[in-house]
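Hello,

Our lab assistant flagged a job as stuck in the queue for most of the afternoon. It eventually completed. Since we weren't sure the result was trustworthy after the delay, we are filing this so someone can double-check. Below is the sequence as submitted and the structure that was eventually returned. Let us know if re-running is recommended.
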Amino acid sequence: MIITRGWLNNFIDISRVSDEKLYETFNNIGLEVDSIKSYTIPPKVVIGEVISCGKHPDADKLRVCQIDIGEGTIRQIVCGAANVVYAKFVAVATIGAKLGDDFEIKHTKLRGVDSEGMVCSASELGLPDMGSGIMILDESIGKLVAGRELREYEKVTDTVIELELTANRGDCLSIYGVARDLSAALNIPINTLEYEYNEGRVKVGLARVLQVKATGKIRGSLRYTMADIEGMHTSTLCGLRLAFIGELQDSDLKNILKYATHTTGVILRAYRTRDILIHENDRITITTTTKDDITTIEANGKRFSTLGVCQYDEAKADEKTTTALFEASYINPTVLVDSIAERGIDSDELYYRTSRGSEPELSYGIKFLTYMLEGYAGCNFFDGVISIEEEPEPKIITVNDSDISKIIGKKIEKSTILNILKALEFKIQSSTEDAFGVTVPRFRHDIENIQDIAEEIVRIVGINNIEAKPLKFEEAQRTNSTTNRYYARKALRERAVASSFYETVSYAFSDRTLLEKYGFPLVKDELDIINPITEDMNTLRSTILINMLNASKRNVSYSKKSIALFEIGTIFDENRNEREVLSLIFSGQRESENVTNAGKPQTIDFEIFATKLSAIIGDFELRAGTEQNRLIHPYQSADIIMNNEVCGFISKLHPTVAEEFDLTETFLAEISFDALIPKHINANPISKFQGVYKDLSLVIDKNLPYNQVATAIKQLELPLLRKYYPVDVYEDESLGDEKSLTVRLFIQSLENTLEDKDIEKTVKRIVDSLKEQYGATLR
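-- returned structure --
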């Protein structure tokens, strides 16, 4: 949204407000300033009155002008602009004027004719381009006095400000809307347009030639007037301001409509009437038809427009139009956008304004348009206005000043709140000691609740004037199984990323052929998906590992040497029952190439992969594998045990499968997510007494797995035994069918310092138990 100081000054007196203050105020009230630029006119550029304009004796495209530059001083100036023949007042750069660093006006001869100055175009004066030719002046910029410097005219030496508006602030897509907000912020009253119709003109009553009929309940408002516009022209001020905002049009009528709409915010359109007969007994009959909240408009059976959406080309007024029908319209943007969202209706340039919220006070737009055309362009309007409008229910919000203060975080006096809302044109319906009702103005369709009201108060009070306080939450305890799963999932992700894994997100579908090939269960045909999204995603997945192997293969094709991926997602059994799993895959180098490994990092192995997995999911045990699928390695796989239950498996990828997916050394794991959700754990006391480590080397049966030894020790429930773990396994021909297993014990008392007899007693109970159950002997 682009505005100028002079334009704003039509509605609010900001003559004593500096540009810096405007900049600060706009940013404080949420109308962020994107840019601000002041235009100045060089000295010695004056108003010139063209006395005569004749042809150059030796150049067809040049004119020799006699121009009064003040106090009867006539200067002869040669001008090449074609439109100088229509000019009475122009901008003249006199001798000595500097229009640029290297451009000073001097006495010269053009094709043998003396020229004492230059008649300037807008761009030559440093103003925005106003089209070809010189800048023709009129009294819209002020009373024109020959010889007066142009820089003294404040409407020309203006400041242009570009604002960044949020999508909900359609009410500020006009000069009047911005002035309304600025009035509240600066506590300066806003001016309303006062225009008196010329009673001396004979006018035809509009009702004699125009009538409006409605079919169906209209969801908006329409207002019509009509005027003879022959001889209409764009004033200097209108053209200059439109050039400032980059909206100067190619016709006078378009300029007038653009200027009035940008000023008032009211959507204005003009229709031609030359194809519609208007005699003493004939009328233009405008018919509105509303269906599904869309209103179409016709005149004498010819389509005109769709309310709030577009105006049809065959009905638009053009340069041949002498009598124009003007329409002001409004429709609630929520109704508009919802109604045409899926209907494919073509829209015109004004739809942007209507869809964000235009000015609903249509009489204001019609009044301003009349003011421009009768006051500056000499047009004659028909007498009266004909309208058709809906009567919307007022939107009333109950507000408590203490609630407003709580939302803002600062005590705001009730009187301050009321004054701000009134300044923003909210109406106070009733006021009690505790609460009051607020009627939301129609131009603020985005205001829905007390939080929106609080935001309006904050804008005007100023966010910088609210003391910063620590954020305080007052929230009831709402943790449940859903939040527990969320936090567990989040923690797993963080630990996996910390362990150098990258997260993947894949579809809940897979290739049925691959699932069957690698021995995974398939969803029953009657429960499977009917319309697969692609040929290779034709069934619900019963494992994530197939998808991750495909992802790994793609990474290999991108020359990745180390691939570490994880995913937390849903898989399905044959009856389509869902469960969540954590799946991981690590292929190739265990680390990147660097100086410490001389550019030759080792590949991943079972131990490193298991260590990384432990860093992610915590402590677990491994037991002989029972998982049955064709991805696992027959000799390097195991079940993962947590809380004495099998919750997943870990394995090296079968060499044949690795070759099929172009992978090198690869390890994978898939664990039930439910087993990874933290359970409530009671705190254990910490001993202040020193503990001791004791290695226990046993000779046991070669085929006896460690987990059975650990189970036997655990069942003893020894009070001094804090932890135990294997540190060495040794096999030799001398041991025959037996092996040596070394278990490291950590023994510590909570009550006193350990004595040798306490240590020996603990070790003896372990040895005796293992000897009794498995025939173990000390080595």
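-- support follow-up --
The delay was a queue issue, not a problem with the job. The result is valid. The two ends are 89 Å apart (CA to CA). The mean pLDDT is 88.
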